[in-house]
Structures are given as C-alpha cells and as structure tokens.
Prior knowledge:
Largest sheet: 7 strands, mixed
Number of strands: 22
Amino acid sequence: MITNNIHYVGVNDRNKALFEGLWPLPYGVSYNSYLIVDEKVCLIDTVEVDFFVQFIENIRKVIGDRPIDYLVVNHMEPDHSGSLALLKKFYPDVTIIGNKKTFGMMAGFYGIGNDGMEVKNGDTLSLGTHELQFVLTPMVHWPETMVTLDSTAHVLFSGDAFGCFGALNGAIVDSDMRCDDFWLEMVRYYSNIVGKYGTSVQNALKKLAGVQIDYICATHGPVWHDHVAKVIGIYDRLSRYEAEDGLVICYGTMYGNTERMAEVIARAAAEAGVKNIVMYNVSKTHHSYILRDVFRYRGLIVGAPTYNTGLYHEMDVLLSEIANRDIKGRLLGWFGSFAWAGKAVAKIQQWNDESLHFDVVGEPVEMKQALTPETRQQCEALGRAMAEALA
C-alpha cells in the first residue's frame, strides 16, 4: 500500500529494448496502475496488454473477488490503455471515466463505446472517503490527457507527467529506494517524449498551483513522495526551456577529420572556463541522450562532413529532432568539413535560419580535407566564443 488504501498494481518491463520503438531502455520501464479501495473501488489506468495476466493477479491480490466500480483513464496511449478491452471482460460492470477525447480514442483503439462517465475539467467523484477531482491537461503530451487528484489523501495520479524511464527494483515509493539513476532518465524521458509541449506543461502546472500534493503517482517510474518538490521543479524548469551553463558538442565523422575539429573546439572551450562539456558522435550515441543534454545545457556546437553534396545523414536527423521539440534559448555554433564540395556548413546554417532559431555564437568553421594551422585557430576561436557567451 502506498497510503490511505491506495495500492500499486503496476508491472515492470525489463525485456523491451526500445520504448515506442525509438528510445533505449537500459534500465527497463514500469507501467504503473493504482487501486483506491474505499466504499467504491477505483482503478487508475491499466498496463500494456502483454502484462495482463500479471496485472490481474496484482489486482486480485489487493481486492480478491470484489468488483472494480470505476476505471479512470488518464491517458489513452496503449502502454497504459492496452488492457482496457480485456479488463472489461473480467469486470463487465466497471464504469470507465474519461473526457470526451478519451472516449473517442477508446472507440477507435478498442471498439469500446461511450457508455461510461464523461468528465470535464474540475468535475469530482466521491468513492466514499476519497474525493477525486479531474483536471484536463491537453497536449501533455496527447490531446486527451488529464490528471486525477485525490483531495482526501493529497495524491496526484499524473499519467505520463512526472514520469521517467527505469523499472522499479522492488521498492515503489522514492523514500524506500536510491533514486540516483532516475534523475537523468527523467530528463531523457521528458526531452524525448514530452519536450515539444512545454507550453502545455506550463498550463498544466498552473492548474495545479497551490494544490497540496503529498504523493505523485505517475504511469512510469517511482511514486514520488520525498522528492515531490524536486520532481515538479524539474518539469517546471524543462518546460520553460531553462538550462545550465554547459556545452554539448556533437559531430559526425567518417574518417576522423571532423572529429579532430570537435576535439580542438572542446579543448579551447574548457581552457576558457567551461566546466560542463559533453561530446557525442552522432553515429555512435543514440540521439535520445543527445536530446537530453541539449535540454540540460545552454550551449550547443554541431559539426559534420558534407555527404553526397548535402549534410551528413545522422546530423541532419539530429537537427530535425531538435527542431521538432521547439527548444528555445540556446546558443549555437557550428563547423563542417568536405573533400571536394563544401555543403555541410551552409546546411547547418539553413537549419538554424529556418527551424531552430538559436542565437549564433562565433564564426562557423569550414575545413577542406584535413586540419591545418589556420583551421585549428578558427576552431579554437569558436570554442572560446562559446565560453565567453556562456560566462
């Protein structure tokens, strides 16, 4: 039990390699579901359908043969709604609670009609002792998303908001575990899954401002209790695109020449006083980690070779991913190389002019074939210019 007859009935997935077929899961992931046992029994969200047998066992361990009266659907993404159709077979009389858009998606995904309880922002429901309030949070990060507040126990069932990657290794609540591994996974989760929707997250936080929240029960990751304020602070900061004074240098390289430029830039930036520097080869490191650090740090320098008279593919993809997240307030420098036709530097500038709109730092550096003393000086100047901008 978490608190006040609120029970965890979720599951862990330690086998999936890529979340949504995209994002690596080195520590696995949890699909969290919760039961409130009162005069009425209320289930908050379900789990991915592959784990249904374990899910039902978890539910019955708590309530035995007692029926489930209500099922609240905060989010319709299939890793949380996937068990809906099967659950209806086990509990045919359950009343499903969602908003108008929830039921539209439910019909599309599972053929379940709109015969449940449709709620609007601010609507409430009494389970006996527990009083639930429903708060609509559209586009965090789907149009139907909402959160459910148990105003009796001061528990927020937040859907994907405040979630993170990582399976739960025995303990459920943060106060019973070491949380170190979850913090960067929370930033990676936010930047890749939610990051585009900063304005929507801010709107949701405003709706919850001033509400007493003792526990956050998200659909992924730990139940937050000791760290509620820290978790809300992380989401607040990320959704406002605030960043630390650090530098991400990411580059593509075919034969090592462009990588040498990156090394010179990094050394010059470090010597000029930048302490937080991370470097990534875009062809070796999964882009989810690079995106995480672009959200973390204010400075970004990118570089790549020309390839087929265009921009090196993996860099082109990364810049597209960064642009898609509408990140604001970053400093950008860039460099490139070519053997016989230089296009990379111009293509990176085009990305910034048309999509990124970051503040330009220093002079772009373009190298023909290999590093020369002149090119080295230009790379050093770019590193120093970024250091000065970050100071």
